[in-house]
Design brief:
This protein has 153 residues and is an alpha+beta fold. The protein has one domain (3-152). It contains 3 helices and 4 strands; from the N terminus they run H-E-H-E-E-E-H. It has helices at 3-29, 58-66, 117-152, and strands at 45-52, 80-88, 94-97, 109-112. The strands form 2 sheets. A two-stranded antiparallel ribbon has the order 1-2. It has a two-stranded antiparallel sheet with strand order 3-4. It is elongated, with a radius of gyration of 22 Å.
């Protein structure tokens, strides 16, 4: 496994965590949205991650510069992750008693989004830590490449 594989894998992790963070931000932004174009309250969204067997290698992009791969003979396969799907949480809406609200039903309850702010904050911290870990891998791989170049010079 080459250091480029580490770059490839970390890049997929960064991309997946960015999508996850965007969904968390969307969930938090819509925590009080009771009307959506589909009707009813906003429904919490979540990303489903899947493992990748092969990804587009980082060296593929470097080939554009000189017409050759950085490491001849490298198979170009690496593991990684991607967002396979974005799903809506099918938990029921929270029913809050607010008889004065324009969207209240006959009993005075308003259907609110099925978002738990504590869970979203925990998910946000988890996504941020995973993103940071992938940045650390990229930095370590870069440092190792620089040290390897110093040996040759």
């Amino acid at each position: 496994m080459s250091l480029f594989n580490a770059l490839d894998i970390s890049a997929t992790g960064l991309s997946a965590q960015r999508i996850r963070m965007n969904l968390i931000a969307e969930n938090l932004a819509n925590i009080n949205t009771v009307n959506t174009p589909q009707g009813g309250p906003y429904r919490r969204k979540d990303a489903i991650f899947v493992s990748l067997d092969t990804i587009q290698p980082f060296s593929h992009f470097l080939k554009l510069f000189k017409g050759k791969a950085i490491q001849p003979g490298w198979s170009g396969t690496a593991k990684g992750v991607k967002v396979a799907n974005v799903i809506e949480d099918n938990k029921p809406a929270k029913m809050i008693y607010q008889p004065q609200h324009p969207n209240a039903n006959a009993q005075g309850y308003v259907a609110m989004p099925n978002i738990d702010i504590v869970s979203e904050m925990v998910n946000m911290i988890s996504a941020a830590r995973a993103y940071e870990a992938n940045i650390t891998v990229l930095s370590a791989a870069k440092s190792m490449m620089q040290k390897a170049l110093e040996i040759g010079g």
